[in-house]
Each structure stands twice: as C-alpha cells, then as structure tokens.
Amino acid sequence: MEKNIYHNKALQWGVYAVFFIALAIIPLVQDDAFILNQFATYGVYGMLALSISLCWGFGGILNLGQGIAFGLGAYGMAMTMQMQSQDPDINPIPPFMLNNALEELPFFWEPFWNTSAGIFLALLVPTLFYVIFGGLMFQARVAGPFFAIMTLAILSALATLFIDLQPYTNGVNGISPPGALDLGFVVVDPYSSVSYWTVFVLLLVSTVCAKLLTQSRFGLVVQALKNDSERVRFLGYHVAFYETAVYAVSGLIAALAGCCWAFLTQYVSPAQFDVGFSISMVIWAAIGGRNSLIWAIMGAFMVQGAQSYVGDEFLNSWVLILGLFFILVVRFLPGGFAGLTESLLGALSTGGRRRGGDVPVDVSKAGTEGA
C-alpha cells in the first residue's frame, strides 16, 4: 500500500513537472510579444482556476464570487501603479480625481505611494475580507447553495459600489495606469518576457504550495469536511476554522491573480467584479476537473485558448457553445478531463495486469498440482 501511494504521488508530481516545463519552454521558442502576453494572461486564468479547485474541489465550498478577491487585488495593484506615475510635489492627485472635483488625495490612497506597501495591501485586503466574511458565514453554518448565493450577492454589491464611488475609483471607466509596474530592480513591461516569467513563477509557486497544502494534515481534514462535515465536527475539529482557512487561501491566490492582471493589462474596471466572469472560473475548473489542481489549471488554458482562437469566429454564439460544452461535461464527465484521463489510465493499467498476470497464476497452480 505504501509503495502504491508513493507511486501515485510521484506520478502526480511528474505531471506537474511536465506541465510547467512546457510553459517554461514557450518563451525560449517564441519571442512574439503578443503571444507571450497572451500566455501570461492564461497563467492568470490558471491561478483563478487553481483557487476554485482548492476551495470547491478539495474544500467542497462552491464560491461563485471569486471575482471579489480578484477585483480587489487588481484595483490594489492598479492604484500602486497609478501612484508610481504621480509626483508627490507637482501632481500628487491622479487626473480622474481632478476631473471629479477632488482637491486632495483620499487618505486610503496614501499607502500606495510606497510600492511594497501597495502590493502588500493588494493581497492583504482581499484575504482579510475572505477571513471576516468566511468566518461569519461558516460560524453560522451557512453552506452549499446558500453560501454560493451570498458570494454572488457580495460580488454584485462590490461592483455597484466601485461604480458609485466614481471620484475615488473612476467609476465604469476604471483605472488606467500610464506606465508599467516598476519594482525598483526591474520594470515589468506587459509585453516582455519579464511579465511572462513573473506570472510563470507566481503560478508555479501557488500551485506547488496548494498541492503541498492538500497533502498535509490540514488538507486531509479539509477533504474530510467535503465528504462529511458533521462527522468531522463530532471528532472534535473546529469545522468553521478549517473552512474559513481554505476559503481565505483561495482568496489570496485569486488576489495574486488580480495583481498580475493589472500589470499585464494596465487597466482595471468594475468588469473584474462581473458575475459572468466569476462563474466562468467555476466552468474552467469543472471542465478540467475540480478535484485536480493541475487539471483545473489546464481547463482554464483550454477554455480561454479556445475562446481566443475560435471564439472570434462565433462571436456571441461562443457563450452558448461554452454553456453547451459545460452541460455535456457535467452530464457525461462529472470529473472533467481529469476524471476521463484517470479512467483511461486505470483501464490500461488493469488490462496490462490481467495480460501479465494470467501466466504466473497458471504456472503456480500447475506447480502445486504437480507437487
């Protein structure tokens, strides 16, 4: 049994290694700036699918409002980039604020003068939001579709809030930082290999950390919650704590994706809080396989890659095609492509053992009979 478990873990890590080696080869064979930016964007989608897989696939928490952390992270990074282009003495106030009759910089924009503090807040604020919101919901034992509906409600409320606070967020027009992200030691130009490698490293680190988390004692308890939370509670575990923790970690990964989105596009708007976009994240994970972190990521790559190269041909019909494909996957492949691959490998493995196992059994019997 131990040998089989080790073999399965080794095989899993092997799949992860092959996937990320393939991503690492792309900038070595492709120097087109647009293509690199496109694959970096897929990496952002991959982080979002990863966060959904961790929360929903392993934790059993269906979150239809993952755009909350994504949008807050994106706005935090955009605010940081915007303040990098402002001069504290000559023009300390962003142009859109002047157009909205603001005469001084709002106090909550002040920390974003410092790049490190701005990035830290871009990750901290969404994570704290998830800790507080998740703690309140899970402590009250809100779960299943009720929790999913609550996340949708909060997501819609935030979208409306960011639109209404036009003097501070520029409303529906969003924030468009004029310059690339300057980290001091390097400038992360969105159309350069630097941005690609930045997203690649962050996706790699997030994936490895999430994988290690699922294989830890904490991860085992979280997976047990998905199967029978009442039994876990009966065994003495603080169910709300574990649910809040995995929910917050997924929010941190989504916020990181939002930060990457901001420096890749140099633009954020309330569209990042769009309900349809958050539901798309769930679709990516479901198609790839929500119970597999790496396949959830590949699901995001597949769906968004198809939209980039095929969606333009079908225009508005692409949404219907994606919806139909999602229905077919849920109906016939509930485990996504991960489940399909596992079934095929299992069939091949079983067939191989049967063909290789018949002869030894017969020989053993013959030997026994002869004795």
Report on this structure.
Helix 1 runs antiparallel to helix 8 (193-215) and helix 11 crosses helix 12. With 371 residues, the chain is mainly α. Helices cover 76% and strands 1% of the residues. Strands 1-2 form a two-stranded antiparallel sheet. It has 14 helices and two strands; from the N terminus they run H-H-H-H-H-H-H-E-E-H-H-H-H-H-H-H. The radius of gyration is 24 Å and the shape is globular.
Distance from first to last alpha carbon: 32 Å
Radius of gyration, rounded? 24 Å
- Specify the oligomeric state: single chain
Taking the sheet with the most strands, its summary is: 2 strands, antiparallel
pLDDT below 50 for ≥5 consecutive residues: which ranges? 1-7, 356-371
Number of strands: 2
N-to-C SSE string, H for helix and E for strand = HHHHHHHEEHHHHHHH
Mean pLDDT: 87
Q: Report the β-strand fraction as a percent range.
A: under 5%
Which range best describes the helical content: under 10%, 10-25%, 25-40%, 40-55%, 55-70% or over 70%? over 70%
Shape: globular
Total helix count? 14
**Strand order, biggest sheet?**
1-2
What structural class is derived from the secondary structure elements?
mainly alpha
Defining traits:
single chain; 371 residues; mainly alpha; two-stranded antiparallel sheet; 14 helices; globular; disordered N terminus; disordered C terminus
